[in-house]
Amino acid sequence: xxxEGGMDDNLLKVSSxxxxxxxxVITGGARGIGAATAKLFFDNGAHVVxxxxxxxxxSTLADSIGGRYIHCDVAKEADVExxxxxxxxxxxxxxxxxxxxxxxxxxxxxxxxxxxxxxxxITVNVNGVVHGIKHAAQAMITGQKGGSIICSSSSAAIMGGxxxxxxxxxxxxxxxxxxxxxxELGVHGIRVNCVLxxxxxxxxLVSAYRKILGKTDLSPKEVSEIVAERGSLxxxxxxxxxxxxQAVLFLASDEAxxxxxxxLVVDGGYTSACSQMSFIYQS
Length: 283
Prior knowledge:
Belongs to the short-chain dehydrogenases/reductases (SDR) family. The chain is of the alpha/beta class. It contains nine helices and seven strands, in the order αβαβαβαβαβαβαααβ.
């Protein structure tokens, strides 16, 4: 049925593109959640710069969505600055920064944690996000006076026992820096938020499950099935890359225009309630 007023189908299609003409930089955008977000941003009208260390995957994806690719190790401030400068050179502005890149950290007991490995993780997961916020904010303040910065944290940041000590520390630190910078940058119209995925079958999570369960051939589908059974209130339903990408799209869009310093948890309710108690409602 054509809407009242006679708007044609083509206009409807254009108006549904929530990021039309926006320019975005996505770190860790070559695969996983970053790649899913890059594709969704493109589908919604955005111009996307993919910044990653996976050159072949990143270049191929960027070409497929009419975007740009740049080699970027987020632990190096100059690399992150270069990624944002590429967006400015290409399109003259930066509207969205998705600080998504991250790595897994050393596991094991706190009594024998490898501090050198831990510092490597912090350099990527925490410093990398700070680099992204810093240089995105500079571009947004001097440019269009506004924008959306989104940082990828984890359900491990708000619930103990879900990941290694080092990874948990790094992801909770991201919540702190996002809220702190949201206080400063709000006067410039810049929103800073976090997205907290849980149980998404990324390369990182699948690798962790393989190690924990001692099954080197464990597939992403099998990991999703485990999460769906044990890590969600929505039994039979696990998170996908696209679920997280949709959350990031919302935070990047005008629909979230009055949302800042917020942690958007994508966890099927796992960190909010006990799925093991659901049996009491079935009697």
